[in-house]
Structure formats: C-alpha cells, structure tokens
C-alpha cells in the first residue's frame, strides 16, 4: 500500500491532513519493478490522477527503473531505489510528478541527444528505446545529482475541466 | 506470462503472448519468441491482444523478431487490442509505423501472407 510521511494534526480539529506525497523504497530487480508499478497505479488512483496519465507515468517508471538496473552499476543494485509521487497544481492545471532516486552511476538522461524515430525496420535499432519512451510519454523531465544519488523526476499535467 | 503458437497452413505461424511484457515478463518469453520467429514459416502474426503492458524491453524483442522474419523474406504483423496500453508503447517508440498493427486476428493473418 502507498504510504506518505505522517503530517501534523490540523490544529484544534483533531484531524490529520492527507500526506503531501506517497513514497516507496524498492530493491533493484525486475520483480520489484512490477511492485513499483502496482504501487504507482494505486497511489495515483487514490489521488484522482486520470487513467490515461497513469498509463504514461507507469510506462515511464518502468523505463527509468530498467535503466537504473541495467546501467547503474553495482551501487545501483545494492542500495534501495526510492520513489516519490506528488500530485498538485500547476497554474490552471493539475500535475503528477514521480521522482526516482538511485545510488548508481551519475547519469543525466537529458544530456543524451534526442534520437530520430527510425523510418524502416532495417534502420530500427533495438537499443535506446527506454529513453525515447520516457521523453515521449512525460510532459517534463528534471534531473539532478545530489548526495551521491541520481534524482530523476518526470510528470504529467492535465486540465481541471 | 505465457507464449503459445499454432501453424496455419504452409506459410504462417501465429504466436499468442499474454501477460505483462515488462522486465520479468519479457525475460520469461523472449528466448522462446526468438526461437518461434526463427522457424521456417515465412510469415508471422504475433497476437498481443492479451498483453496488458508493453515496456521497451518487450518492444526490443518484437523488433528483433520482425527483423529476423524480414531477413528471410517474410512479414511479421501484430494484433493489438483497442483497450490496451500496448499501442501507447508501440506509438511512442515509432514501432507502430514499422511493424503493421491490426485489431483483428483475421485481418492480421490476411496481411501477413499477402
């Protein structure tokens, strides 16, 4: 089940405000990627993220985690991967952001030049598709390397109407 | 996760995959997919209508198989359900423009042998 940090009681009311985000820590393996997908679907549903946006976020999450596991090196495999979902407002829209934090080799996916889609099967390369999916299925990407960890955030926006 | 096949006449093989083609799911069927598409049948239909999720690792397996079929002069086509998220992955990677996609298995079979 998704869980967020406990938040203080609303003064005088004895009620707890909903946690501002959901978090999960997973190990770096394929079975855990599946668990992370299930967690994200459930957490997004609780926070009323539209199903079409959830599909894109889950796809991006799978690709980000697959890249960490495949290319992150030994440290990525032994330290937990932390996930955070935040749902909020962005001017007249709502937005959902997912941040993946891992202790693997520093890697900024935004530094990789965009790849043109192949025009024929002969031209198609089976590699590098994960990043293509992340770029095409997210409304924004943000990367920083801090405290020895990669922090990659991707997200989706949707109209309030 | 499952992968099954049936041969339809002399020239067509129909492969049906079900489940999630994420990292563990693709690991479970990729070798068998390569083996089944490497068989001497000229054309191949890969039916993904029971696949609920397709990550790029699964797309990669489809590209590898489609290339192998094309290199021996055949054609590989896909069947994808309207209601699945599989089409999202095929479109995001551009693969829906490279491997023909059909909603109906019978249309896919006709196109594969045409």
Give a quick precis of the structure.
The complex is a heterodimer of chains A (161) and B (114). Chain A is an alpha+beta fold and 161 residues long.
For the structure shown, list the relevant keywords.
heterodimer; A: 161 residues; alpha+beta; Heat Shock Protein 90; 5-stranded antiparallel sheet; two-stranded antiparallel ribbon; 32% helix; B: 114 residues; alpha/beta; Transcription Regulator spoIIAA; 5-stranded mixed sheet; 4 helices; 5 strands
Strand-helix topology:
The complex is a heterodimer of chains A (161) and B (114).
Chain A: E1 9-10, E2 15-16, E3 22-26, H1 30-46, H2 51-71, H3 74-78, E4 81-90, E5 93-102, H4 129-137, E6 140-146, E7 149-159
Antiparallel strand pairs in A: 1-2, 3-4, 4-5, 5-7, 6-7
Chain B: E1 2-8, E2 12-21, H1 23-37, E3 43-54, H2 56-71, E4 76-79, H3 86-92, E5 101-102, H4 105-113
Parallel strand pairs in B: 2-3, 3-4, 4-5
Antiparallel strand pairs in B: 1-2
Helix pairs in contact in B: 1-2
Work out the radius of gyration of chain B: 12 Å
CATH class of chain A: Alpha Beta
Do you know the CATH topology of chain B?
Transcription Regulator spoIIAA
End-to-end Cα distance of chain A, whole Å, is: 29 Å
| Percent helix range of chain A | 25-40%
Most extensive contact: A-B, 28 and 26 residues
What is the residue-mean pLDDT of chain B, rounded to a whole number? 93
Rg over alpha carbons of chain A: 17 Å
Arrangement of strands in the largest sheet of chain B: 1-2-3-4-5
Estimated share of beta-strand residues of chain B: 25-35%
**N→C terminal distance of chain B:** 31 Å
Q: What's the total number of strands of chain A?
A: 7
Structural class of chain A: alpha+beta
